[in-house]
Amino acid sequence: METEKVELINFNPEAYLKDGEMVYSKRSEIEKLADKLTQEGYKNIYLMGIGGTEFELYQFAYAANRMSDLPVKVINAADLNAVHPRDLTKDTIVITASDSGNTPEIIEAAQWLIKDDIRLIAFTKKSGELGGMAPTVIEVNGSTGSGQNYYMAEAMLVYSLLYKHGDFPDYPQFADQLKNVFKDLLDIRKKFEPKADEIAHKCYKAPYTIFTGSGALWGETELFAECLLEEMQWVRTRPITSAKFFHGTLELVEKGVPVFIVEGEDEFRKQDVRVQRFCEKIGAEHYVIDTKEYSLSVDDKFRHLVIPWIVNSLLTDRLTNHYQVYTKHNKNYRRYYRQFEY
Asked: What are the entry keywords (predicted)?
């Protein structure tokens, strides 16, 4: 498909590519930080988020747990504040992110983590509340607000730590190939744009929509369903892992209830395809988001580390913007979220 003339609604391609260059220019800074943390020593890593940031971090724990015996966990900041896990000590590295810089649960966690001398790395703006208190800040927020800004920077930190831990010997090659990923993701957006419009037009009025995904893509599935459609578009959804779908949610599939199936390329793919086969067998309305349909200029052995960025580009960016066209609901408008104290 020719994509040169495709117009992307509510998107600035030039600014997006500049953001990619900006983030990639942080590579040396991030890898030096990984050197420093490795020299200091650590026993485990916590990836701390809340809402969208929690979902976005799943991909790194998933990949780390495939490559290493180093304990790497994702934890919800509110749960962290409630539980104070026993394995979270001065030998822990905590990595977090906040685009706003003032996410309440993350600010609360940062306060006691810093007080307890636990190393905290924050991907956020230096001018924000979190940026002003975190001892180590990596600033990657560009002009487009793309999630991939954070993904690339976080990937360089987590995977360079694994490299220095002896678990990812090909990291330098992987990092070299990231240089062109934003160009790939721009082309992927253009390829998907007509399909995004078609899907949004068909589904925006549905009273209820089911989303399935797994493995490296489960976080992106939850992110789109909960943060983009529920929070930003007030669209009722049911995100469920592909495996769990068959133990409850399948009975809710009926006429007028679309099923979105996010299909990856890892060992979990067979679970995703099983949902597709079920929908085909009963004649259910379903939409397959298959990352195999989209090319990347990274070696195949690295694709599983980057395919969450494909799904983020397709759903969180493109499909959200097309839903907004048909719902006539500005995605930045909230009734409750951050509107008052609760």
From this structure: Carbohydrate metabolism, Hydrolase, Isomerase
